[in-house]
Amino acid sequence: MFVLFCLCDWSLIGVIGADEVKSVSVMEGEFVTLHTDLTELHEDDEILWKFAAESIAKISIEKQIFSTFDDVPDGRFRDRLKLDNQTGSLTITNTRTEHAGVYQLVRSGMKSSSKTFSVSVYARLSVPVITRDSSQCSSSSSSICSLLCSAVNVGHVTLSWYKGNSLLSSISVSDLSISLSLPLEVEYQDKNTYSCVLNNPISNQTQHLDITHLCHTCAALISAAAAAGSLLIVVAVGIFCIYWKHRKTDQEGKCYILLLTIN
């Protein structure tokens, strides 16, 4: 009966110290601390930190061991691990996306327990870019401005268009290093405020739309294209005339070239 009681008591301790899972997010390049939630360690405490089943740090109060194993599993933690000798908490400095994953804390001694941390590391976001899609300007009577908001080399993000504070459209991606684009059509005389937002769970970047700058009328674009074509014709004729004059007299040809360069 005594043996049975001891087994039941041990089983109860195991349930009390049952594994907990905590999600932690950090921006790439910053530090993250995985807390033991202890105020101090006892003399018989042993703390073991693991990443992907590999031991990366250990504390033994009785044996006076306070060690980090920077070179396992592949050297990704070299010069990045710090232990709090009072609480056993583990800090990872200068984080990279390769440090994302599952970390396990195992505490043994009179009070045994374990905790699991799921760490997500997010890359820093760049400001999205808004451009005009001039290929959609097919007629001089069109009053629609076709826009494209883009972000390159992103992962685990959402790209969205907003009209004021109202969401118009969005697209999300969970892959790493991918390019995203999201279209928007507005009237070139629209007076509303629009913005394109790139965000992940811990940060965001916003680009505001300047309709006056980007959304010229199609008629204006066509006129500008026509004017540019006319200018090319004038330049071509001028070059031909200079060449013809140059054949008649070198002095006169050089004078024409000088005048064209100054104008």
Automatic annotation (TrEMBL):
Keyword terms of this UniProt record: Membrane, Signal, Transmembrane, Transmembrane helix
Gene3D superfamilies associated with the record: Immunoglobulins
Sequence intervals crossing the membrane: 219-244
Signal peptide from the UniProt entry: 1-18
InterPro entries: Ig-like_dom, Ig-like_dom_sf, Ig-like_fold, Ig_sub, Ig_V-set
PROSITE patterns: IG_LIKE
Domain spans labelled Ig-like: 128-212
Name of this protein: SLAM family member 5
